Amino acid sequence: MPISREQLTQAFDQLLEPGRFKDYGPNGLQVEGRQDVRRIVSGVTASRALIEAAIEAGADAIFVHHGLFWRGQDGRVTGWMKQRLALLLAHDINLYAYHLPLDAHPDLGNNAQLARVLGIDPEPAPGGRFGDQQLGLIGVRCEASAQALADHVAAVLGRPVTLVAEPDRPVRRVALCTGGAQGYFEAAIAAGADAFITGEISEPQAHYARECGVSYLACGHHATERYGAPAVADHVARALGLEHQFIDIPNPA
């Protein structure tokens, strides 16, 4: 049986509590589609490739981490924005996007799910959280060296990892924050982490890692954020009796 668009919106909002966060764009329903929803497709980013795959899969709603609208972007509907919106509107598909709320959910969010996938045992809050809006997660995984941790992460995520570290230094306390969270590294150092896992690295972080002795692992923005969206969408779909399919559009970033 289908449910209403309003019921689905309420379910996502109650789970992810977007009102608690200061974010870079609107969270929740970004593009309104048909009223009745039977099938959800989840993915990382609302790219044209994902929208086309969702249309092929017969989706009534798409649930993503990276939506269409961001603070400070050009507001004109041209080029890639026009193409994506045209597809959504022509096929009457609802688009839901949750950014920081999806990162932060303590069980189903990107950080919690990456920790689960990597076998990192999260420390309880509040000590197990760090960084702006307490988005970062700290947990325990004992490895003989930073290189051993990097090899483990690369094997699980299926992609190379950039490691800046003393490779033979043992690791126990691991901080992580998915995606473009390189700015959280100093907070992770202050929180007493032995290693920090995120998606990207910028020039300053290599120096901090060498000077502070805390290992830095850049594991890919997309690769670290593949797990929250399907976990949340599947949880909500099961609760509401809907169909759900995760579609991963490869991205080297």
Question: What would your notes on this structure say?
Answer:
The protein has 253 residues and is of the alpha/beta class. It folds into 2 domains: 3-99 and 227-246, Udp-n-acetylmuramoylalanyl-d-glutamate--2,6- Diaminopimelate Ligase, Chain: A, domain 1 (3-Layer(aba) Sandwich); 110-224, Udp-n-acetylmuramoylalanyl-d-glutamate--2,6- Diaminopimelate Ligase, Chain: A, domain 1. It is 36% helix and 23% strand. The protein has 10 helices and 14 strands. It has helices at 5-16, 48-56, 79-90, 100-104, 110-118, 146-157, 185-190, 203-212, 221-224, 228-240; strands at residues 3-4, 28-31, 36-37, 39-45, 61-66, 94-97, 121-122, 129-130, 136-143, 162-164, 171-176, 195-198, 215-218, 243-246. The strands form 3 sheets. Strands 7, 8, 9, 10, 11, 12 and 13 form a 7-stranded mixed β-sheet that branches. Helix 1 packs across helix 10.
